[in-house]
Amino acid sequence: MDLIHIILLAGTGVLAGIMASIVGGAAVVSYPMLIATGVSPQLAAVCNLTALMPGTMLAALSDRTQLPPFNRAFLGLIATSVIGAGLGASLLLLTPERTFSVFVPLLLGFATVLFAYAERISAWLRSRAADRGHEITFNVASLKLLLPVSFYGGYFGAGVGILMLGVFSVATGGDYRSANVTKNFVSSLNGLAAALIFIAQGAVVWPQTLALMAGTIGGGLIGARIARVIPRNIVRVLIVVVGAALTVTFARRYWF
Hints:
Layout: H1 3-22, H2 27-36, H3 41-62, H4 72-94, H5 97-116, H6 118-131, H7 140-155, H8 160-171, H9 176-200, H10 206-226, H11 232-255
Helix pairs in contact: 1-2, 1-3, 1-10, 2-3, 3-9, 3-10, 4-7, 4-9, 5-11, 6-8, 7-8, 7-9, 8-9
């Protein structure tokens, strides 16, 4: 890996860190950049999940007053989420490289659709909880939603931020700032669980991962401050446009 690739990855990491800490969707830009620097699609997913973890953790800790109380319900939710991410990471390593390449456009397209309908997803989750008369807080009911979300996050990760944001918006009564900080904290723990599995299996391509990670750490801290003031719709529109373009690009590369 040459100096130009290091600069490109670090710069992309800053943007990815900002995106991840504000709403999610960092993989839409960081994942293709890893592939562009010579990493295979499957290992790019491994490197991406590993590189994003420190930045989202720092973003959460920089606004930690917004985290919910670390009571039994929240700790149980964290444990369930980490287990789901670990299972997803294990499946990623078991997926044949050729098979994973075919899924890349589908995964990017799925993530892009999630961003496009993010508000509707969040509104539906809140409405569903209200119709059932559930108290909007962290409880066992949240686990049924978070487990599959975390599993997907450990497997690929693109779009998982907005899914978590929807789940935690229910748990925080629609308080974006609190939901976003909680999303950053839990997703970083999921990333840690996945990264430990990847590292243990020797699957991480360290030069690209470290270059990207350096950028995401700075981007995560910047994004934590921006998240307090920026309109989310601006970020979401940009992500959807970029995601749609990349989905078409990778579909042409791996399908035709």
